[in-house]
Amino acid sequence: FCTLLARRRMADVANAAGMTRDSQLRIASYLLEKVHDEFDEELLGLCETYAVKHAGLRKGLEKLRQRERESQLYDEPMLARIRSVFDKPFDSRLGITVFAITTAFVLLSVIVLMLRSVPRFNPTVQPQYEQTWLWIEGGVTIYFTVEFALRLLAAEDKIDHVKRVTTIADFIALIPFYLEVMTGVDIAFLQAFRLLRIFVFFRRFRSVDSLFHAVWDSVRVLGAPLVFLGTCLFIVSTLLYYTERGTYQPDQRIFPIRDCE
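Request: output the structure for the sequence above.
Response:
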C-alpha cells in the first residue's frame, strides 16, 4: 500500500488489502498534500509510520473492546451471562475456556467410540477395559448433561430452544450412556448416537445454523423422499450387517467372518 501510494498508483491503492476504499483514499489525500514529488522517500516513510501507528492503535482498541465485552458479561444477570458464554464463546475469556473444554470432551468421546470398535480395546473382548470406558464416558456425559441443562435453563424462549435441531441432537447423544447404566446392557448400535455431539461445533457458525433452519422448515416437503431414502438405507445396512457380521470366539478373542464359498 505504501509503495503504491508513493508511486502515485491511486487505482491500485484503492484496491490494496487491509483497508477499506474510503480509508485508503483519505490517507492518500492526507499524505499527498504534504509531499508533491512523483516519488519521495518521505512519502513512503510517512505512510509506513502511519501504518505502524494504526496497527498499534487497532490492537489496543481490540483489547479495549474485549475488556468492555467481558465487563458487560459480568454485569449481566446470571442467566444472561450463561447464555452469552454458550452462544457467544469468543466474546470473553470464560466463553473461550468453556468452548475449549467442550471441544476436548467432544473429541474424547469420539476417540473412545472409535477405540471401542477395535478388538484390542473392545470391552467384550478385553473385559478389563469395560470400567475404563465406562468412567470416561460417564464423565463426558455428565459434563454434557450439565451443559444441556444450563442451556435449557438460560434460554429466553424455551419452547423454541427445545425445537432446535442441535438441542434434539444433544439430547439423543445423552441417551446411550443412561440406558447402558439403567439396563446394564451395552446396546452397541446406540453408541453411534454419541457422534451427534459433533453438532456442538455447528452452533458457532451462523451459516450452518441457517442451513439447519432451512432444512427444518422444508421437512414437510422433503418428508416423503427422506423417509423413503432412510428406509432403503436402513434395510440395506441391516442386510449387510447380518450378511457380513462375525461370531465372537472366546478362545481366539476375535470376530471371525466366514469366507464366501
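The longest helix spans residues 41-75.
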